[in-house]
Amino acid sequence: MAFLKTVYTIWYRDLLRFLRDRTRIFSSLGQPMLFLIVFGNGLAPAVAAGMSGVDFRTFLFPGILSMSVLFTAVFSAVSIVWDREFGFLKEVLVAPVSRAAVALGKMAGGSTTALIQGLLIMLLAPLVGVRFTLPQILTLMGMMILVAATMTSFGILIAARMRSMEGFHMMMNFLLMPMFFVSGAFFPLRQVPLWMEWLARADPVTYGVDAIRQTALQGLVPEPILRTLILHPLEINLIALLAFWALFLIPAVWLFSKTE
Could you give phi then psi for residue 221, rounded to 5 degrees? Predict the structure, then answer.
């Protein structure tokens, strides 16, 4: 019970900080809207021939949804570095609570805030002609939680040893932008160079984007065309995401437990 109470307390603190910071909530919608409206409309005529009749903005929307979840989840781990700089983390670490519970609470808090951000992006779906059924919404919520948990664990893994905000942001930009751009969020991973194909296979974001795209476009795009836009069956994507989650979470909790 003490373990679960610690997880809940850290989760609740992070969620409360997020909900109270309305500027952060609405400003974080700016970049997805910029990509979706400006980037989507600007490139739609140029790439129409290679999209098999699918509107580029429709294709792009699941990628933008994934981007919102991805960046919110990873950068939620910056609170670890922030708390370390301002002394709050020291107070938590000397408390008679499990450090593993603190790390899991951070992961739960980051996953929840990323889910909320993703739900806000889903409100923009009618602008690009994408509409969801209730089963799709529920499935997408599950997908977003899994992607968010995986990438929050990745963020905690990096933040556990970072000593400055500047270092964390530099490292995240160095890692996240390539991971996002080779994931197929902006373009189908068909007939790409072999090196890009292998990078995409090793990229956890690829499986999240692919799973969200399959779910979001189901029933909206004809099945034969949808098969040309996706990479793996949904089951493979889920197994890969679970494997990456474990791969990131276990060392993240261990490193956080060794934090001084």
Answer: -115, 135
Quote the distance between the C-alpha of residue 204 and its chain's center: 10
Beta bridge partners of 221: 218
Q: Map out the domains of the chain as residue ranges.
A: 2-257
Q: In the predicted model, what is the mean pLDDT of residues 38-42? A: 70
pLDDT digits 0-9 by tens, 125-141: 887 778 888 888 999 99
Provide DSSP, 208-242. HHHHHHHHHHBTTB-HHHHHHH--S-HHHHHHHHH
Backbone phi, psi, residue 218, to 5°: -60, 125
- Give Dmax (Cα) for the chain: 62
- Give every CB contact of residue 141 below 8 A, 6+ residues apart in sequence: 115, 119
Quote the strand ranges of the chain, DSSP E: none
Distances (CA, A) of 108 to 55, 73, 137, 221: 35, 10, 20, 34
